[in-house]
Amino acid sequence: MPRPLRIAFVAYRGNMQCGGQGIYLWFLARELTRLGHEVDVIVGPPYPDAMPFASHVTEVENEMFWARWFMKDWAGFLPRPNPLRVFHPLHFYELLASRIGFLPEPFAFSLRAFRTLAGRIRAGAHYDVIHDVQCLGYGLLGMQALGLPVVTTVHHPLTVDRRASFVRDQSLRDAIGTMQFYPIGMQAFVARRLERVITSSTAGADQIQQDFGVRPERIAMLGNGLDTELFSPDPQVERSETEILCIGRASDPNKGIRSLVHTLALLPSQVTLTLVDSPQSEACTWARERGCADRLRLAGRVTTDELIRLYRRAALVVVPSRFEGFGLPAVEAMACGTPVVTTSAGALPEVVQTGGGGITVAPDDPEALARAITDLLTHPDERHRLGAQARPRIQTAYAWPHIANRTANLYTAVKAAKKGC
Predict the structure, then answer these.
(1) Alpha-carbon distance 282 to 320, whole Å?
(2) End-to-end distance of the chain based on CA atoms, in angstroms?
(3) Do 174 and 249 reside in the same domain of the chain?
(4) Cis bond before residue 2 (omega within 30° of 0)
(5) What is the pLDDT of residues 72-129, one digit of tens each?
(6) Residue 384 is part of which domain span?
């Protein structure tokens, strides 16, 4: 086995409930330590679950002014117990940036992470590689200037989210706000200068190359990981014949939830939709407008155990997205032996073809989606075949040990190339 590596992860948000970046950070760090490597984590709020496998976890401060401004949390806006801390330079920058509608977290976190990392190195720490998770702040270039190889993971560039936000905008003021919000210029500038940009699909790689201008040879398509021990079939759980499941926030236009609600109205009356989204989801309004509110169930925020139970119970899982850099719900479903119906957007055709556990239709086409769902619901033998076929293929392609091995091999290659420069 090659010499164990010392890896520092930096991630501006670490909690699994914040999306794929928190899940990716926690599981990849765990798997790398299982391979014998040593991992330190420098992470911003919301902080991750306990990471007992890491050598050090440093929680970087962030007053989260943007989130407080967005939620109109005026009572808790100033730092406690010392409100004057707001005049600390980075705090003050975050306050002003939030006030004008700009997302300050990636830049501010990257500087704090650089300061933390430099302090650890001065104290005698040594790192073979720095692995950023979707921050792409200017502070990463400072880490690189210390002579350290720096790689980053980007499942899809923020340009995808910005385009989705333009779809949601209803006025010129909204569109200007969208233009101001995303730190795309900074992220593209940094991405072009790091040793490697890791992504999880060829669709994601194409988007990074096109929108961030990263040269193809600097992009490494390693796939995304899944805990296939957790996400697994259970024959003791009775499958529904009429329940379809979707994991996605209606507030994110990329997830295609409005189109799915339209589809629900076209399906037979016995078919129900369980949507893992907030009880205050806009999907309720759309379902009432379509006359199918009685067949929509909002599950709210669920635990991992409950999510797995939902996957195992559903007749099939629907992923109606307009773009996915990977498509984790489709992979999780297939790992649980549940067939999927997805759109052909982004990386979804790749993961469905890899797993062999579903079918794809064009995005934003409720009629085509309804036909595909109806076809699978009326053919239980085909659903069973697809689910049984997908499980072993997902294990081979996406189980975390495989992803961690590929990532460690990339670290070794990047380190060797940096040393040879």
Answers:
(1) 16
(2) 25
(3) no
(4) no
(5) 665 666 667 777 777 778 878 787 787 778 889 999 999 999 999 999 999 999 999 9
(6) 243-397
CB atoms within 10 A of CB 73: 12
Burial of residue 210 (CB within 10 Å: 0-12, 13-18, 19+) is: exposed
| DSSP β-ladder status, 219-221 and 243-247 | unpaired
CA–CA separation, 304 and 81 (whole Å): 35
Cβ-contact 358, 365 below 8 angstroms: no
54 and 172 co-located in one domain: yes
Amino acid at 80: R
Identify the CA nearest to 111 among candidates 208, 186, 182, 177: 186
Tell me if 56 is assigned to some domain.
yes
256 and 216 in a common domain: no
Residue 162 lies in a domain: yes
Would you say 149 and 130 are in contact if contact means Cβ atoms under 8 Å apart? yes
Q: In which residue are the tokens 């430099």 written?
A: 118
Q: How many CA atoms lie within 13 A of 298 on its CB side?
A: 18
Q: Order of strands, edge to edge, in the sheet holding 129-133?
A: 56-59, 38-43, 6-11, 129-133, 150-153, 196-199, 219-221
Neighbour tally for 172: CB within 10 Å: 8
The domain tally of the chain equals: 2
Torsion, Cα 99 101 107 108, to 10 degrees, reads 20
**In this structure, are residues 151 and 194 in contact, taking their beta carbons and an 8 Å threshold?**
yes
* Pair (139, 273) in one structural domain: no
Structure-block tokens of residue 210: 């096109």
Asked if residue 36 belongs to a domain, the reply is: yes
Claim to verify: residue 171 and residue 278 sit in the same structural domain? no
Question: Is 115 contained in some domain?
Answer: yes
pLDDT per residue as tens digits for the range 201-253: 999 999 999 999 999 999 999 999 999 999 999 999 999 999 999 999 999 99
Q: Pick the closest to residue 352 from 381, 370, 376 (CA basis).
A: 376
Q: Is the dihedral of CA 249, 250, 256, 259 positive or negative?
A: positive
In angstroms, the CA 29 to CA 405 distance is 12
Q: Which residue has the tokens 């096109």?
A: 210
φ and ψ of 128, to 5 deg? -85, -30
